[in-house]
């Protein structure tokens, strides 16, 4: 490490009280602008998750507002496939208190399993993602960051996390979301519609089914973005944990001048990576069409994936 490298701001230590009635148990992760903690709620007598703006980013009013806006939405929304927020605090520092989820992120699951999930599991996951996204769209929001590290699965039940870049349909700057998962129109910038989230569902299902995204990853760019956001290399942890931190560092509310492979070539058919039933393969391929107007609507996608599920027992 260079002697003149910026000093990494310290996270809260176990035992700290970031807000009345909450005690930090452990620091879970750090993204480009957030610290996430495992915490204890005295009122509820249970564990919870606390998200707060990193100490070195707290002077950025937009980030403070972004976190509190997300917390407000998650307190208001009620859906079985969306994570819940218990409460938000504006002082002494802005933070959001979330439910603790059991299970693991899809990002972790994909890289832990020796065998790829079955086609029916992929289809069921897709139906559940469609349900959550359909609800968000009905509340006037696009998620814009659907990806494996933003989905937690426990006993075949999925929950979607993180509304930090969510916004209503309409114009948006280039690069809103996570670089490797952006729909072409997100990468390009301009009007965004529900089709951007259909792409997000499709690329998530592609990675779950095949073990990787359809476009090659640019790890050098991710590491550079991590360094720009105050990260010191990949840091400790397993490979999937480091990767999730890199993804977090690449989350953006808009950037220009980046190179996006999805703007230069079409996604390969999922059948070129793995054999799947035609209903599942066709649904995923339809999500990843470059032209947003040619992608299926969320309800159409859900119906296509539901048709691939085994019939319920009589």
Automatic annotation (TrEMBL):
Source organism (scientific name): Streptomyces dangxiongensis
Span list, region Disordered: 224-276
Keyword terms of this UniProt record: ATP-binding, Kinase, Nucleotide-binding, Serine/threonine-protein kinase, Transferase
Keyword Transferase: yes
CDD domains: STKc_PknB_like
Broad EC category: transferase
Residue intervals of the Protein kinase domain: 22-309
UniProt-listed Enzyme Commission number(s): 2.7.11.1
Entry keyword Transferase: yes
Coiled coil: none
InterPro entries noted in UniProt: Kinase-like_dom_sf (IPR011009), Prot_kinase_dom (IPR000719), Ser/Thr_kinase_AS (IPR008271)
Molecular function via GO: ATP binding; protein serine/threonine kinase activity
The protein's name: non-specific serine/threonine protein kinase
């Amino acid at each position: 490490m260079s002697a003149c490298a910026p000093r990494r701001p310290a996270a809260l230590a176990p035992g700290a009280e970031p807000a009345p009635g909450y005690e930090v148990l452990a620091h879970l992760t750090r993204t480009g602008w957030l610290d996430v903690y495992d915490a204890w709620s005295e009122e509820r007598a249970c564990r919870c998750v606390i998200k707060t703006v990193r100490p070195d980013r707290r002077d950025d009013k937009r980030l403070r507002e972004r976190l509190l806006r997300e917390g407000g939405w998650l307190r208001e929304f009620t859906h079985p496939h969306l994570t819940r927020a218990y409460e938000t605090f504006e002082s002494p520092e802005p933070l959001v208190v979330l439910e603790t989820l059991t299970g693991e992120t899809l990002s972790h699951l994909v890289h832990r399993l020796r065998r790829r999930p079955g086609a029916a599991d992929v289809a069921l996951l897709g139906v559940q993602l469609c349900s959550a996204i359909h609800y968000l769209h009905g509340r006037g929001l696009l998620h814009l960051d659907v990806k494996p590290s933003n989905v937690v699965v426990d006993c075949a039940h999925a929950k979607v996390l993180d509304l930090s870049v969510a916004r209503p349909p309409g114009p948006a700057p280039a690069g809103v979301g996570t670089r490797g998962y952006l729909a072409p129109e997100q990468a390009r910038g301009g009007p965004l519609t529900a089709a951007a989230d259909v792409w997000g569902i499709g690329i998530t299902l592609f990675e779950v089914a095949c073990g990787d995204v359809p476009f090659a990853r640019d790890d050098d760019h991710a590491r550079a973005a991590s360094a720009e956001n105050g990260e010191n290399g990949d840091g400790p942890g397993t490979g999937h944990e480091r990767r999730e931190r890199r993804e977090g560092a690449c989350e953006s509310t808009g950037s220009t001048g980046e190179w996006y492979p999805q703007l230069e070539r079409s996604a390969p058919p999922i059948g070129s990576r793995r054999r799947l039933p035609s209903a599942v393969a066709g649904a995923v391929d339809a999500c990843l069409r470059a032209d947003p107007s040619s992608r299926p609507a969320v309800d159409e996608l859900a119906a296509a994936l539901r048709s691939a599920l085994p019939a319920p027992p009589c």
